Amino acid sequence: MIWSRIILCVFAVGICSSAIAQGHSQKEPVALPFIIDENGDTLPVVNIETVTVRHFKKRRQQIKYDKLMRNVKKAYPYAIAARDELATMNANLEGVTDPVQREAYIKEYEKQMFKRYEKELRALTISQGRILLKLVDREINNTAFNLVQEYRGSFSAYFWQGVARIFGENLKSEYDPDEEDMYIEEIVLLIEAGVI
């Protein structure tokens, strides 16, 4: 599928993690602050963040939101991995001034990413791929188009943009947490808060 190729191209430029966290790890117990009331009872003091959980009046809207939630939960770990790996790659490229060495490093890295993640990324649905591109922009603060252009060159960026446009997408579209991507942002905040 063309979406898997676009996503692989974006990830191949160095934005995929060498290890995506699998499952939930056990957390160490944390001592909570406490107070002792007038009866001598010890009471924990816990600040609870306000979390908004959507409930729609129409069943169709709720089903659509639930599907979006599943897709965001599937794509979000890859976006986090992208952010972390891009930071690592940029740190490794910081001292490299020779364009030939830089290009060789990026190409080698691309090969490694294809070997590690091609199967997983091809398994993403079109909707999950679209969400992943938006989440990558959210985490890195840079569009997929700009990433491909920076690491693979303008020709590759315009080529993949053309392919995306054929399928009704735009690699230049930016993440908009206040309007267009409001529900995605809400779901990500729920994930980060540990609610879902």
In short:
The protein is mainly alpha-helical.
Succession of helices and strands: HEEHHHHHH
| Strand segment tally | 2
> Into which percent range does the helicity of residues fall?
55-70%
Which sheet architecture does the biggest sheet show? 2 strands, antiparallel
How confident is the prediction overall: mean pLDDT? 81
Rg is 21 Å
Low-confidence stretches: 12-25
The computed structural class is: mainly alpha
Q: What separation lies between the terminal Cα atoms? A: 30 Å
Describe the structure.
This protein has 196 residues and is mainly alpha-helical. The chain has one domain. Helix content is 60%, strand content 3%. The chain is built from seven helices and two strands. The chain has a two-stranded antiparallel sheet. About 7% of the residues have low confidence.
Keywords:
two-stranded antiparallel ribbon, 196 residues, 3% strand, 2 strands
What's the topology here?
Layout: H1 2-12, E1 34-36, E2 42-44, H2 59-93, H3 99-122, H4 126-140, H5 144-152, H6 154-166, H7 182-192
Antiparallel strand pairs: 1-2
Helix pairs in contact: 1-3, 2-4, 2-7, 5-6
